[in-house]
Amino acid sequence: MREIREKIENAKVLTYAVLNNAEATLIFETTNDRGKPLTSLERIKSFLMYKIYLASDTPESYLRTLQERFGEIYRDYEETTPTLAIDEDFILRNHYIAFEANVKTDSQRDYASHLWLVKEKINCLTATTATFAEATNFIDKYSQELKETFSIVNQISKKLQGNLLNLFHLNRTANFLPLLIVSLKQDNSQDYYNFGRVTKLMEIISFRVYGIRKRKLNNSVILNRLHELAQKFQGDFDALISALKDIVGEFCSDREFQNRLISPDFYEDISGNDLNYLFWQYENYLRRTEYLEDEQIGFRQYKGLSIEHIISQAPREIPAWMDERFWSTYIHSIGKLTLDISWENSAKSNQNFDIKYLFFYRESKFRCQQELIKFTNYDTDEWDVSSISERQKKIVKFVMMYWDYKIV
């Protein structure tokens, strides 16, 4: 504490006396190269104010407007971050993609240099007095749209429910943010009905195309299509819905989707989060259709969601029906998996089905575990390959229905 006190007492403060905001802007932009690095928002604000000071005939008026706009931007961003852990530079980048970029000429590398590209454009306009008015208009328009974007992202953070919340559960929102911004901005329908349709198709793309079909997140063809839709969107939601459906059909057709679902290696091929998400949706489907007295459960309601192998991967007892076909076809199939919680999953260990059902499944908090007894083989009274096959049919039927892009 003594060392800090001595530094404070011995510190020297350099004071610049200015007459107005214009002079303050000039000094800030030309001397602020020491101390803590500026954030992306601070850098672009400082740059815009400096350039408007140089280009405008009435800089004081524009400077006040910029101050007010960035004040709103900071307020919106502060309200957003408690709900969405989102970086301000990420919002700036996606604003550039949605409103400034051109997918035909810009690359993903250009998007990473979004602030430099905006500055370069303004520098070109302020290089000669002949384009000062154009520079002023661009800065005014850019700052207004930037304010609107931060406001929309704040709205998104307050609308996290339904299809939008499901999209965030899948942890692939980055590819969709430009389209989320422009579609919410232009949706005038009652209760944001059109935005709900768009977010449902985004969730389907995220789950079907990226999750189950395993298309890479950096697939440039898909990414460019999504970005181009955002850049060209002028409010025609039917055309947008049709274009998003085309992406699903092209990159994960119903046949491809079903083949992935019935794959004998389903458990090993799909990420843990996507598996949890699928069976969580199946659990809520059972509550909507067969257990109507039950409330829906949230994806984050229980800590440590996991996937349980109903028949253990290394069972204590190996009955005769566990033949070579079982190990090659059924051991990791979708019909042999169910939603669980990690510690309960561990407690079940490698016990046989009868023990698991008696001590765990029968009184489980999950209906998808309680219903397992319904699939017991009627002839043998065992939970075997016929049980797995019948349960797989039910789950696949649900999945094909729930993530059917054609009915959105």
Plain-language structure description:
It is a single chain. By secondary structure, the chain is mainly alpha-helical. The chain has three domains: 1-158, no CATH class; 166-252; 266-407, no CATH class. Helix content is 62%, strand content 2%. The chain is built from 21 helices and two strands. The chain has a two-stranded antiparallel sheet with strand order 1-2. α3 runs parallel beside α7 and α10 (177-185) packs parallel to α12. The chain starts with a helix and ends in a 6-residue tail after the last helix. The mean pLDDT is 92.
Describe the SSE topology:
Layout: H1 2-10, H2 21-31, H3 40-55, H4 59-80, H5 88-99, H6 108-112, H7 114-125, H8 132-158, H9 162-169, H10 177-185, H11 193-212, H12 220-232, H13 237-251, H14 254-261, H15 266-269, H16 272-289, E1 305-309, H17 324-330, E2 337-341, H18 342-348, H19 353-359, H20 367-370, H21 385-402
Helix pairs in contact: 2-3, 3-4, 3-7, 3-8, 4-8, 5-8, 5-10, 8-10, 9-11, 10-12, 11-13, 12-13
